[in-house]
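so my prof wants the structure for this chain in the tokens format not the other one, which i didnt know existed until like an hour ago. anyway here's the sequence
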Amino acid sequence: MKMRVRLAAPDEAPTLWEIRNQAIRHGCRESYEAEVLRAWTPEMMPEGYRHAVRDNPFYVVEEEGGRTAATGYLDLRAGSVEAIFTRPECFGKGYAGLIVTAIIAEARRRGLTRITLEATPNAAGFYLRHGFVALGEKWLPSKLANADLRCVDMALELN
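here's what i got, hopefully its the right format
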């Protein structure tokens, strides 16, 4: 199957939000309670999400036929990896790895020497396999989820 990694356009934000919600609802079931997942994945997309797509290098994997299968971006202000999400039916195809590789390359092009992220517990192993180092667990307050979310602080040195 042919696919390509490309930058997303702001008008794709609703589709990217849908992928986010599907990935969280499916992938985070073992890490967070159902009530938290429901609150964290509202159908209505916050307008700030469209701004994130517009203002940052926001990558997608597009499958043959044009369907977007995975997402993720480099938050330029924070120097962090954000929104790495894959449609549940596309898990295991390597799409998230393609996104991470594109983000790391983008960070290097921009002269960053370190990137960080806050991984959900179910995703920490994925990031370890891509060279990130776990710095420790923490509880991240989420206004959207109306809860503190357990996550793993991680970093990658880009020497």
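also thought this was worth mentioning. The chain has a mean pLDDT of 92.
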